[in-house]
Amino acid sequence: MTAANRINWKPIFLEAMFVVFGVFVALFANDWWAERRAVEEANGLLGTIESEILDNHALVSQSALYHMELSGRLYAAMGAGERLSPRDFERGFMSLNEPLAAAWSTAVEADAVPNMPVVVVLSLSRTYQEQERYRTQRAMLAELIYQGMYDGGLQALPSRPGSHATLLSSSIFLECGLLDLYQSSLQVLGREAPPQMPQGCRDILNGAGR
């Protein structure tokens, strides 16, 4: 083979190396960008979840306060030997507010949870699991309360203040525990000053050693 016909492999090899390097850089950049977008989307969802927890905290706080008020009214009536009437329950025999889980469900369905910090995921998972347990158990308590009213008429519950107060106490305990978890999750999410829970809840949780 003459010098004129000899193939110069060096520029071909260099060109091939540049092509491979360019493909590698492009793949790395795409992966980096996709991961960055996934993290940004997860952070955006965390902001939505924080807003949802704040709304739920306000909702459950209102329920706990109303149940504490009703419970105090019932025990006061029992102590005085009095009987309450349906008019004394102007906001219902029990609060029926429902905390939401739409933001957390969206994060799970969008597969954004793996892109969130582990400590945040653990806290949120526990909080929303407890919230679902609260919804289920409180629905059972509400069924017991309102079933008694349906069976015995409007006077059925006021005529049995002790059983009504006991059921409300169960709901209050669940609500205070859930509020405690809300506050823990808000702190993990970086909120420096979570909203305050009712003082009655603090007393209940301190008594329960929480």
Itemize the secondary structure elements and their pairings.
Elements: H1 9-79, H2 102-109, H3 118-152, H4 161-188, H5 199-207
Helix pairs in contact: 1-2, 1-4, 3-4, 4-5
Note poorly predicted spans.
none
Question: Compute the gyration radius: what is it?
Answer: 30 Å
Distance between the termini: 89 Å
Strand content: under 5%
Class from helix and strand fractions: mainly alpha
- Give a count of the beta strands, DSSP E runs of length 2 or more: 0
Q: Order of helices and strands, N to C? A: HHHHH
Major sheet size, sense and barrel closure: none
Mean pLDDT score: 83
Give helix % range. Answer: over 70%
Name the overall outline.
Answer: elongated
Task: Summarize, please.
The protein has five helices and no strands. The protein has 210 residues and is mainly α.
Descriptive account of the structure:
With 210 residues, the chain is mainly α. Helices cover 72% and strands 0% of the residues. It is built from five helices and no strands. The protein has helices spanning 9-79, 102-109, 118-152, 161-188, 199-207. The longest helix has 71 residues, at 9-79. The chain is elongated and about 115 Å long. The model has no long low-confidence stretch (mean pLDDT 83).
List keywords for this structure.
single chain, 72% helix, elongated, 210 residues, 5 helices, mainly alpha
